[in-house]
Each structure stands twice: as C-alpha cells, then as structure tokens.
Amino acid sequence: MTLGLVVPDAGATFFGSLAREIENAAFSAGYTLLLGNAMERAERESAHVRALLDRQVDGLILAPIGRSGPWVDEVARSRTRTVILDRELEDVSATQILIDNEQGAYDATRHLIEHGWRRVGCLAGPEGVHPTIDRVAGWRRALAEAGIDPAGTPPSYGSFRQWDGYEQGKRLLAGSARPDAIFTTSDEQGLGLLRAAFERGLRVPRDLAVVSFDGIAGSAYSIPSLSTVQQPLDELGALAVQRVLAQSADERPDGETIRLTTKLIVRESCGCGREAAPRA
Questions:
Q1: Which residue has the higher pLDDT, 128 or 21?
Q2: CATH assignment at residue 20
Q3: What 3-state class would DSSP assign to 190?
Q4: Which of 79, 129, 175, 254 is packed most tightly, with the most Cβ within 10 A?
C-alpha cells in the first residue's frame, strides 16, 4: 500500500521536515510513501502527479507550488483520495489542511513592535502563493494597528530559501533608511539575514531585531538564536495522512478546509534574553 507526496522543494528545510513527518505517519499506518520534488517548477509538479496517478497510489498528499495547476482536473477525474497541504488551492473540491499564516505573522510583527521598533521591514517569499500573501497581510495588519505606515518599509519579495534571505538582506540593510527590525517569512530567510547583518557589522538584536517563521530545528542553534513562529509540523503531517486515509475509495473530497494555529517561540534575535539598544 502506497501514498504519494509532492512538495514544492524537498531541499527546503521546511518541506524536508514536513515530508519526514508525513512519512512517519504513513509508515505507522502501514503505508509506503513515494516522494515527488517539484523544484518550484510547474512541469515537474505535473509530471510527478501524473506518475503517481499512473502508479495508482492509494492516496495523494500535495503541497502545490501555486494557487492552481493543470493537474487539478486529472486528480479529480481519477477519484484518487487527495489532501492539499500548506499552499491553498482555489476552486478545488478537496480537503485542504493549512496554517493560519496571517495570524502567525501578525503575532511576530506585533512582538517586534512591542519591543519599541517602529521601522519593521518584511522579507517575503514568492508573490502569488498563499503563505506569502497571508504572512504579508499579517505583517501589514500589525503595523496598521500600531499606526505605522507599511509604505515606509515595503516588503521585499523573493524565495523562502536561505540564500535569498542573505541577498535580500544585503540590499535591504544597505539603504540609508534601513529597517531597525525585520520579519522574515521563513526561518531560512532569517538565517540568511543574520549573515547579511553580520557582514555589515550590525549586531542582532542590538542594531537589528529579527523574527522569522516556520520553527525549523536549526533556528534554535543560530547565533543569536532565532525567535520564530512555529508551525505544528507533527500535527500537520499526522492529520494529512489521517484525512487522506479516512476517505473511502469512491468518495469525492468534500472541500473541507482545516487551519492549524501557530506558536510564537521567543528566543534571542528579537531582543528577548539579550541586550538590545535602548529606544528613545
């Protein structure tokens, strides 16, 4: 008995960790997991989905690269049990298990503002995918509630990967009106940003406060350790397997949407637990 999983980028720490949790839950249920790595490319994603359908897997778990895909109708016609994870699809009748990204980003940004930071920037992921859209929306909401105009520090869009956090961070920190705090939409971006700040001679959190998103294991071991919004990966993986196996062989997905909550993990990079610069 087999389940199929397709993720946007298996090399990303978040998706690698998610795949591990899903495999563990599948193995415990007596299933073998087949993994497809889309590499953030639509043609690879479609090829993996079609290959898994051809193998007649017992269920599909998909974390799509975008808000739609040419394979959506094929999956529906196949009547294969299907669960969508992480990145919300539009106009699809399938169980979707998502994260409350907007609230998590709001909590992270509000925490920075409560430290007294007023110029709070945002290193964002790729435009057009729901995690980026929702996390930027949460960042904007926290700024608006504090009476801060986000136009003063517009979000910088890129990828969720560490190298991109480094490159975006270098550009953002080179400006004359650089932010004094930054919310990054992934932990990998946050780790890259720490490197960019170090190269510019900025001390985190004294000169620059940082809060990131994901809660990957490595975020606890950076210097300083990253304050982060932790996603419940173990719950996400277990629930995905549970929901896909709960569907009967001839059942069409019911369009159920489940949103899981996040938790703000406070460490050193935001200014908690380490000396930060005094605020005027």
A1: 21
A2: 3.40.50.2300
A3: helix
A4: 129
